[in-house]
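Lab notebook, bench 4. Continuing the backlog of folding jobs that were queued last week. Each job is logged with the same field layout so the records can be merged later without manual cleanup. Today's entry covers Membrane-bound transcription factor site-2 protease, a 504-residue chain. Filled in by technician R.K.

JOB TYPE: sequence-to-structure
TARGET: Membrane-bound transcription factor site-2 protease
LENGTH: 504
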Amino acid sequence: MLQTTGVALFIGLWALLYLIDAFLKVINGVFIYGVITLLQQSHAPFDRIYLRFLTHTGLSVSIGQIRWYTSCFNRMFVRIGSWKPNYLKIWFTLGVCFGLVAMLLSVFLLSLLVLNTLGKKPVEQQVLTPVMPGVNLPMNQICYYLMTLLICGVLHEIGHAIAAVREQVRVNGFGIFVLALYPGAFVDLYTEHLQQISPIRQLRIYCAGVWHNFVIVLMALLILVLLPWIMMPFYSLGNGVVITSVMENSAVSGPRGLSVGDHLTSVGGCQVKSMAEWAECIRHSLQGTASGYCLPLDLLHQQDIALGSYPTPAGYVECCSNTSNTHLCFYYHSKGTSDVQYACLPARTTTERLSCKLPSDCYNPNTPAVCVMPSLDNTTRLLRVLHKGRPPLLFLGHPLDLHYSVVLSDYVPSTSLVPVNLPYVMETFCKYLISLSGALALLNVVPCYALDGQWILLAFIELSLRSVISDPEMRGLIYTVLLLFGTILIGTNIIIAMFTLFVW
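JOB STATUS: finished
OUTPUT FIELD FOLLOWS
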């Protein structure tokens, strides 16, 4: 229901934007016609306000798309493209090598994907997955996704523009667009200049975009590896985890629960020094038996407020009043009897005692003690979460509810002045850059209509086959067959990916 409402609002916003644009253009035309009619005698000046605004800003609106086009960056492209031309030649020649190798690798991977599907291999082995906000992309990470797409698209097109200037091809302009939900960029090159230069120079221009996408991947990987050293002056590692986000209305939210910035060091008696250890502690609490607590018998009798015990439909025994929110039912075995006994005890003070697994763990010759265990069903656990600077939190529920209620980071701030979630934001952003920029690089080099691979293939065929096959029609036939194969390959993979996402 929420997804349907979101789609309806999304379509409605685009329709409203398009109608407003059309309305202003019509009103502008009517207004101008009226001004011309009224002021014909005096020849007074007039202005097309809205149309002039669109022309001046470079904005344009169409169905499901808004774009911005400008030539204000042309001087910047010329300056960068004219700087150290020999170094830039080497740089973009490396891009040609990468583009050609990536084209072979992409065709191989996509072909293997189709063969795996036809061979009925498990879907989990597939490598191409479409990203759909609200379907397999969490809505709270959509900003990372859209910002990554925009950055990758802009740097991709800047690569084309700088390479074009280096190869003496005029750049007419640069633009950014939003198509439905997805942002992108484009560069407008002078076509006649581009067609007149040699194939190797064309390849430097065509491969520059995917080459820059690959460089983005390398830079993001480098930042991700160096992140602990980059953050070292402001954050510490290996002495716990810090909460960067708490799910609203979860079992641990609220004034007495966990909050952003809490420094967690232990859960259920298991020491936590990193996110990996946190996950291991949660797994251990799921698979292992529940821990008990050593309690002296005399203190047990003093604190016990149970008036009786009764079995519940879930299969465990309850001995506390339904109105009690500070006490919990525990069971234990007394020495000299095999009967199970129950006591309603204050949960907080009881869990502060030494933990135990067996009654023998609580043996004390001077003070008789028993090992009291929480009386709970098989999936519920009583976990004591220690966080510095605040009283321990007692969590009663399924451990996975605790695990999925918080977002954690290994980077614990050294002071309260530094933001808690900065390392998480940088780490997440780098991972999106690696994933999306790498995917754009590999997919864009496939010889397919409307992708860079279409022009890379054309220039490569002219470069490699012109001296072998002199007939241009034969080279054109080879180009058409390979381009058709790449287009069918991309289309087949898109169908498989969408089928996998929505049907499997």
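OBSERVATION: Residues 31-36, 38-47 have pLDDT under 50 and may be disordered.
SIGNED: R.K.
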